[in-house]
Design a protein that fits this description.
The structure is a single chain. The protein is built from two helices and three strands. The protein is of the alpha+beta class. The protein has one domain: GMP Synthetase, Chain A, domain 3, CATH 3.30.300. A three-stranded mixed sheet has the order 1-2-3. β2, α2 and β3 form a beta-alpha-beta unit. It is globular and about 45 Å long.
Amino acid sequence: MSPSVAVKQGRWDFAQLYDWYRYLNQHLWPVEGLSFSDIQEARNRLEYGAIDEPTRVEVENILADLDVPCFLVAIEIREYAVPLASVP
């Protein structure tokens, strides 16, 4: 192994992240203003986007009600994705 490569043990393996992702999506995607979701393997967490601060707070409250483990989910303020061009 190259000396410039470091391997870190993650808190969750991919299967656990995927299980949490599927479970949380059932509760979070009904929220108006959720802009994206992703499994971030490199950061060993799930990421969700909210279009504004009120949506972010709503998502945080749902996560708290579901008793989601600390540091499992990161929430960013980000607008909806806009396609650069239409595909004919």
